[in-house]
Structure formats: structure tokens, C-alpha cells
Amino acid sequence: MILNSLHCRCFRGLADMVFTPGPRVNIIYGANAQGKTSVLEAILYAATTRSHRTTVDAELARHGGHEFHLIAEAVAGDCPVNIEAHWWKRAKRFKVNGVAQARLSDILGRICVVFFSPEDIALVKGAASSRRLFLDMELSQLHPAYLRALQQYRQALRQRNELLRCRHCDADMLAVWEAQLAEHGSTLIKERDVATRDLSAIAADLYGQLVADETLELAYQPDISDPDLIEDTLQRTRTADITRGSTGRGPHRDEMEIRIAGKNARSYGSQGQQKSAALVLKLAEVELMRRRVGEYPVVLLDEAPAELDSDRSKRLFTAIPEAAQAVITTAQPVELLPVSRKNAALFRIHGGNLEQEAG
After folding, report:
1. 350: which strand partners?
2. Is 1-112+299-359 in CATH node 2.40.50.140?
3. By the 8 A CB rule, do 153 and 251 touch?
4. Distance separating alpha carbons of residues 309 and 194, to the nearest angstrom
């Protein structure tokens, strides 16, 4: 999967610009607050309909404006993909190859991306919800059926929770939503289990490359281990749920534990271990996508070298697959990056203006 160009208009602090990355390593460098992260954010938004920094689309418009426009042109397999994202009058609209999309969920998977930022340390040290989101975003890009099950599960969960908060809770209606939660929750549990096993095997090898003499493993911990028992569990916990006013059991409470040297990385990992583990999870996601889809996703690394010491930074660049297209931002001098400038396309950004260095 290759991103050929990105056209941004009125997005964040970026000027009206066109970014044409090369097919392998691309480095965007410049001082802080010049727009490096915004370029990656624009790619992410076009590919996934969402930003990693905000859920309020109005914040993405330049200088308090009322619209922004993105066009991403890529090749997936042998097929050209053109995604157009337009936010205007507080509504976002997407087109794929010139055809308007009725559902934003239909955008996911057209251009597969894996994004890493310094904030992704929350994957390791944050709440279980961060790790569920990681799995959900990965699987939603890979499997439309998973995305549909996730959307249906969330809808049924909202409906059941609203019903639980009613003064007179209708048991028959609760049963309807519980059946929906069981049907779609079963898909989530099964897919998360398989994905975690695959990611764990990949991550163990990658972590060994990045960190010597330590082991890393992932363990999926479903809130309800047997998918066939979801409906029965929800029925048994109705009284407690009515008292609480929310659904206390189900896949929305799942956990993916990360262990370093056999210990829970969230509780016992050092800052350096947690950073390395978060990065390895993203690199494992890259490889899992390649195995499932048949080609690498576009890899987006925001200030990743700054989060690692020099030795781990060198190993990071070695771990990025040579065949994958990568866009890396850095505030460091390019000369300090452990990457051959012969194989990299260099872009300097200043004041939202992006310029490619002559090769």
C-alpha cells in the first residue's frame, strides 16, 4: 500500500500544500509547532475519518475557519484509491474514487495506516480502554465484518444502558438487547482472541530485536471468556446493572495484558520499557496487516526517535520493514537519524509550508 500524494487545504496550521512522499522512508523535519504532526494527522484522518488528537472536527480547521479539505491518492494492491474528505458547515463528507460514501465506516480499510505518536505510551500505561481501542482500530481496518459487529454491539449497549436507567425497566426489552449483545459480542471476543495471539508472537520477536535480554508477551483477557455465556451472564447480572444504571459485564470490559519479563508492564514496567513496548505493538500491527492483507500499511511515526535512546533508535529503523512506506517526523537534525539519506526522501516544514529537498 503506497500513498502517492496528500493535498491539504485549510487543515490545522498547514498551508495549502501537496505532499508527495516516496515509496519507502520519508522524513519530515523542522522545529516544533511548524506542522510536522499535522501532516501525519491529515493522512490518518483521510484514512480513518478521525484524528488522534481530538474528537472535535472544528478544531482541525485552520485558524478557526469553517471548513477543511483533504485528498489522499494511494495504490492498494494494483488498484488506485482516491479518498476525498471535506468538513464544511459542521458536517464531514467523504468520497472514494469520486463516489460519495453514505457511511463513514465504509472508509476504513481503503488505505490502511498504522500511526505511532508519543501519546501511544498510553497503550501500555493507560487504562484497558486504550488497548481495546488499539485492537478495535486494527481489526476494523482488516475486517469489515468486525467493524459491523463492533458498531452493532455499541448500539445495543447504548440501548440497554438507557433502558437500565428507566424508572420501570422492561425485562422483555432487556432480553432483546441482551440477545444482540451476545450475537455481536461473540464476534468481538473470537476475533480479538485470534488477533492477540498473532500479535503476541510477532511482538515477541520484534521486542527481542529492540531490547536485548527481555521478553514481551500479550495475553487477551475477555471479561466473559466463553462467548456462548454472554447472554446468560447479562441475565444474571440484571439486578446489579439496574442498580448501577449501566452494563457491567461484556466485551466492552475486555483487557489485553502486556507483560515484560513475565510482569505486568503497566504496573511494573519502567518508562523506557513502556515506550519500547508501545512502539513494538505498533510495529507488530504493521506485520499483522501485511499477513492479513498481503501488503504493508502506510507507517506513520511521529517523533518516534525522540522517545528512544540512540541504541534503541537505531534498532527501530532496522525493524521498519524495507518494503513498507514510512513517514517519520523529527525535530532532531536529520544527520543524527540512523537512516541512510540515500534511501530517504527529505522534507523540511516551516510555518506550515512543506518543501522537499533536492535528491
Report:
1. 353
2. no
3. yes
4. 33
Neighbours of 233 (CB within 10 A): 17
pLDDT in tens, 312-334: 677 777 788 889 999 999 888 77
Please write the tens of the pLDDT for every residue from 226-261: 999 999 999 999 999 999 999 999 999 999 999 999
Domain 121-296 has CATH 1.20.120.1460: no
Tell me the C-alpha to C-alpha distance, in Å, between residue 164 and each of 42, 152, 159, 232, 240.
40, 18, 9, 17, 10
Cβ-count burial of 138 within 10 angstroms (0-12 exposed, 13-18 middle, 19+ buried)? buried
Instruction: Provide the residue ranges of all domains of the chain, joining segments of one domain with +.
Output: 1-112+299-359, 121-296
Q: How many residues in the chain?
A: 359
